[in-house]
């Protein structure tokens, strides 16, 4: 180094000496000195891009991107696609907080060298700072595993994922944090709320448990308190009260919008816990502020109405209306406070609603109230036409379509409701509560494939949404996939941590229906008493009572369930109970009454025909025909009808229906037995033996005495006497009558 300095003293800016000196300084790990030497070189020899490039990199490594940027700008004019130059430029721009251009240069560099993690990080941070969260998540996800656990970019990634609705991804990112600090409290509170919106209750609880025990910031504690309240932890009320009190004292932390939102949350908590005096204190505070005065009067009215003090509620609303005379919400709430005991009072309310709809024709609560009141007064309703007019002028307003669909459901115009809800879905395909009404409308119009597709789409988009889960459970139940239905209910309760009472009730019902009575009873016992009075639980309890042979109470509960919801399955359970408790005649009567009211009920029409098969053959035949008219693919109806026609010696019809049943169930022993006995009666011994040999091998019928008797007769008819005798000697009779029948067959053929 000394010799080099001597040379440079004698020959200032000697080219080779400067290069050697800079390289030696780098080897001696003196990058600042090397940068100074390269500066001298570039100053003396400005036309050497290779040295400029090295100096730019060195500035960048030393954390001096602004110095590097001057050189890079010069080099980029000649080398516009050099990725390192683009990367250095992007870093300099990011340091200057010029995030938009930083992102542009970073992405130009990545287009050439996509594996550069440093540039990827610049792109991720810059896009986050420009609020392009989709790009930020895309870039930062690729480098997250390379970052230190305390790197700010990990926090940016988690926040971007929350904003994009990817709460599960954000939850995984947060797991990469090495230590949760107070600075992370707000992020975690937001993550907890996002997980709750996605139905991930247990994961939201885990996030709450990760929060630091001691938080200095009132805003951070307010976020945690809000998450607690969302998880039904009432200790959040006290925490939120304290946080809001501190936020009020410290003007430095005052955030009016956030504070107002927090106060709304606190009010909701007060109302849900009946702390009305505290809610009124907030109303009083709001009234003292010009910006929130009307909101204060409306809150005071709401609290008074809840407590039954309608005069004070009305007075508060009138005070609010003086401040905002055209406020449609206040006008509507005043109308709702009017008495409704007499028809005249109802007529007066309807007239007031008409006036409101003149000035506020799109105010949906008034439209809905007007419709309901018209129905109560048994007057022609005009609101569906009103909504159709609104839609004509605003065809892209999805809420108008949804409201129209709801009214059409109430009118039992299910074709209309399907059209309205499908229009709303076309405008906004995001799952929403009205999807349940659309599914029900599909069912009412026999669009079962669309029902299935809708619930599958809903469940795929929101796998933790209780309504979507309920829909899928019912689909599985309807298709006989009970195991899948039970697993879905178990997953919701155990893994997600959900507490939806309808899902819990469905779970108990499915356990009872599949014979898991002990588990079902345990589920029922844990449900609130008011839930046990619901039709679904009445059915479940009735099934359990059937299993316990408590037939009288089973009939009572299953009849109550049927009256509340006369579904095909509820009718089936009720008739089962009646048959066991009161006998077949009573069951027949109940079944006939039901199918006369619901002539399209295939299940119970078939049941009625089966009950009549051994009692009234003509009645049975008539109802089997009705089943086939409803569903030509019902093999049981075809098979049983074939049997009855055979007994009536109408062999052409018998053979027709037996062969139809065989087309659907070619290996079913019951079908093969029917077809075989018809062939026997027709004298087709060989064909009969073929069918009955297959029937006796089928697991459903191989131990059935009547099928065995028919099989033996087919053997005798085909002169297979020794084989018949051997089969008889190997068979264990279930009934004493069987041996008598066999003796009669022997006498016929021997």
From TrEMBL:
Pfam families assigned to the protein according to its UniProt record, in alphabetical order: TPR_17, TPR_19
Q: Which InterPro entries match?
A: PEP-CTERM_TPR_PrsT, TPR-like_helical_dom_sf, TPR_rpt
Question: TPR repeats span which residues?
Answer: 83-116, 635-668
The domain of life for this entry's organism is: Bacteria
What keywords are assigned to this protein?
A: TPR repeat
SUPFAM superfamilies annotated for this entry?
A: TPR-like (SSF48452)
Q: What is this protein called?
A: PEP-CTERM system TPR-repeat protein PrsT
Protein species of origin: Psychrosphaera haliotis
């Amino acid at each position: 180094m000394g010799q080099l300095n001597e040379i440079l003293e004698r020959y200032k800016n000697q080219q080779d000496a400067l290069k050697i000196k800079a390289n030696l300084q780098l080897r001696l790990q003196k990058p600042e000195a090397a940068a100074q030497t390269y500066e001298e070189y570039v100053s003396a020899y400005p036309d050497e891009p290779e040295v400029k490039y090295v100096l730019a990199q060195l500035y960048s490594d030393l954390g001096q991107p602004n110095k590097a940027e001057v050189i890079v700008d010069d080099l980029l004019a000649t080398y516009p696609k050099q990725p390192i130059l683009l990367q250095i430029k992007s870093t300099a721009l990011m340091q200057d907080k010029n995030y938009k251009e930083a992102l542009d240069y970073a992405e130009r560099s990545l287009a050439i060298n996509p594996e550069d993690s440093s540039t990827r990080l610049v792109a991720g941070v810059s896009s986050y700072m420009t609020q392009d969260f989709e790009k930020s998540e895309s870039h930062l996800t690729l480098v997250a595993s390379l970052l230190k656990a305390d790197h700010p970019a990990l926090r940016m990634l988690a926040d971007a994922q929350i904003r994009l609705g990817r709460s599960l991804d954000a939850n995984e990112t947060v797991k990469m944090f090495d230590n949760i600090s107070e600075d992370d409290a707000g992020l975690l509170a937001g993550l907890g709320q996002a997980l709750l919106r996605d139905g991930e209750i247990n994961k939201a609880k885990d996030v709450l448990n990760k929060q630091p025990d001691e938080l200095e910031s009132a805003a951070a504690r307010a976020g945690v308190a809000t998450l607690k309240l969302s998880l039904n932890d009432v200790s959040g009320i006290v925490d939120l009260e304290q946080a809001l009190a501190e936020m009020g004292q410290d003007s430095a932390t005052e955030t009016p919008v956030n504070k107002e939102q927090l106060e709304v949350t606190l009010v909701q908590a007060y109302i849900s816990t009946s702390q009305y005096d505290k809610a009124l204190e907030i109303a009083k505070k709001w009234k003292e502020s010009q910006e929130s005065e009307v909101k204060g009067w409306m809150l005071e009215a709401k609290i008074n109405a809840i407590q039954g003090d309608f005069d004070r509620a009305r007075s508060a609303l009138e005070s609010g209306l003086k401040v905002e005379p055209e406020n449609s919400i206040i006008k509507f709430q005043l109308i709702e406070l009017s008495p409704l005991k007499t028809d005249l009072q109802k007529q007066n309310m309807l007239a007031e609603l008409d006036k409101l709809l003149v000035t506020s024709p799109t105010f949906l609560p008034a439209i809905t109230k007007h419709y309901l009141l018209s129905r109560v007064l048994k007057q022609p309703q005009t609101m569906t036409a009103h909504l159709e007019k609104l839609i004509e002028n605003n065809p892209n307003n999805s809420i108008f379509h949804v409201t129209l669909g709801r009214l059409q459901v109430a009118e039992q115009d299910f074709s209309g409701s399907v059209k309205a809800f499908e229009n709303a879905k076309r405008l906004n395909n995001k799952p929403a509560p009205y999807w349940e009404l659309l599914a029900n409308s599909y069912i009412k119009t026999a669009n079962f494939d669309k029902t299935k597709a809708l619930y599958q789409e809903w469940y795929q988009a929101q796998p933790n949404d209780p309504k979507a889960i309920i829909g899928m459970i019912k689909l599985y139940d309807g298709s006989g996939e009970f195991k899948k239905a039970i697993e879905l209910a178990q997953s919701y309760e155990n893994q997600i941590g959900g507490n939806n009472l309808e899902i819990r009730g469905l779970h108990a019902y499915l356990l009872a229906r599949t014979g898991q009575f002990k588990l079902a009873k345990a589920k029922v016992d844990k449900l609130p008493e008011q839930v046990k009075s619901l039709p679904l639980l009445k059915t479940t309890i009735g099934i359990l009572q059937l299993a316990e042979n408590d037939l009288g109470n089973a009939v009572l509960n299953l009849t109550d369930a049927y009256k509340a919801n006369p579904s095909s399955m509820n009718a089936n359970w009720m008739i089962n109970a009646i048959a066991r408790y009161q006998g077949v005649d009573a069951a027949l009567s109940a079944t006939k009454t039901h199918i006369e009211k619901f002539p399209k009920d295939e299940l119970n029409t078939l049941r009625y025909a089966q009950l009549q098969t051994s009692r009234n053959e003509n009645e049975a035949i008539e109802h089997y025909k009705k089943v086939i008219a409803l569903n030509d693919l019902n093999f049981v109806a075809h098979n049983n009808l074939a049997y009855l026609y055979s007994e009536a010696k109408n062999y052409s019809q018998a053979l027709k229906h037996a062969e139809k049943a065989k087309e659907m169930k070619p290996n079913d022993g019951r079908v093969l037995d029917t077809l075989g006995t018809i062939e026997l009666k027709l004298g087709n011994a060989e064909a009969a033996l073929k069918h009955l040999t297959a029937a006796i091998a089928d697991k459903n019928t191989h131990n059935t005495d009547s099928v065995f008797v028919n099989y033996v007769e087919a053997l005798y008819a085909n002169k297979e006497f020794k084989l018949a005798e051997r089969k008889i000697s190997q068979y264990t009779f279930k009934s004493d009558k069987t041996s008598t029948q066999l003796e009669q067959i022997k006498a016929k053929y021997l």
